[in-house]
Amino acid sequence: MAAIFLLLLSLLTFTGDVISTTTPYLSSETLFSNYDKMLDSFKIFIYPTPPITEGTIFTTTQESQFYTSLLRSLFVTEDPSQAHLFFIPFPSSLSTRNLARLIRNIRGNYPFWNRTLGADHFYLSAAGFDSSSDRNIVELKKNSIQISCFPTSSGLFIPHKDITLPPVHPFKAKSSVNNTLSFLGYMKPSGRSSSTLIEEIKKHPEFKVESEPGNRTREFIKSSRFCLFLYGDDMTWMVEAMALQCVPVVITDRPIQDLPLMDVMKWSEMAVFVSSSGGAKGLRRVLDVIELSRYEKMKESGVAATQHLAWNAEPQPHDAFHMIIYQLWLRRHTIRYARWIEQ
Q1: pLDDT tens profile 239-261
Q2: What's the start-to-end Cα distance of the chain, in Å?
Q3: What is the pTM of this model?
Q4: What residue spans of 234-332 are helical by DSSP H?
Q5: Which of these, 63, 184, 193, 195, is most buried using a 10 Å CB contact count?
Q6: For the segment 263-299, what is each residue's pLDDT rounded down to a tens digit?
Q7: Confidence at residue 6, expressed as pLDDT on a 0 to 100 scale
Q8: b/e burial code for range 87-102 (CB count within 10 A of at least 16 → b)
Q9: 155: left (phi > 0), else alpha (psi -120 to 50), else beta?
């Protein structure tokens, strides 16, 4: 089934008559009208931060950026009766036992958790976590909104409920793009990457694999039609690739359900998704059949999307922080779940 899904997704990606307009959005009209409503009304209540023994509460740049921006924003309310959602801050290093205790204290000291069994609550967890036999952890994992860093580990992300944070990576605007394209595709694998596919790509004359990551990355991006990513590997530079008009090609052997801003973006209009089973030759065949007109639209959509994937020290309208808040706003209507039964 996964192979069929990827094939259909690839066909949607390079079939030129799917959508005639160049847009990265699932629905631009809905997005921007709802965005304004969100700015006017959305409120979040933040529970007290549990004490930490050392360091900061969040260890990744994305988490820290989101948390800092949230604290400074007008979305925060000190009156929980006004809140649409409730944020539970806790460090990623918190043990399962202590996390269960934290949720138990929230359940006992505040009236909000039991109204929806946590379905109107959200939390940050960079890698996500498995549920356990403790009812508090089960309700947190299954009901509350988890915000993780992209990409997440398989099985630790629940589609349509959870959200991923775009990577934090500085990039320049498309004005510096070089129109001389020397490579069909460029790949910058991390130092830990090793696979038969990478070795095949290295030997293929139309692909460029950077042997010393970070050495000439920007130059190779601007000289390539496509930028190749192994899903789960180093994907922090994907937004920069899009900004520099290099269409992302995500190589994966299973459906991807944790792409950033999946409630907002039509990723099949900006990126190609292809299985590794065909090797370098199969990858080239997929890329060769993408018509020039379709390729140009994908580049334009990718550039347009980068403003929503960019993090700013001071949040700007429609940037990554606001798009994460927007996805939370879409989830503000909660469903009461059946009570968890002790085993």
Answers
A1: 999 999 999 999 999 889 999 99
A2: 34
A3: 0.88
A4: 238-243, 279-288, 292-309, 320-330
A5: 63
A6: 999 999 999 999 999 999 999 999 999 999 999 999 9
A7: 45
A8: bbbbbeebeeeebbeb
A9: left
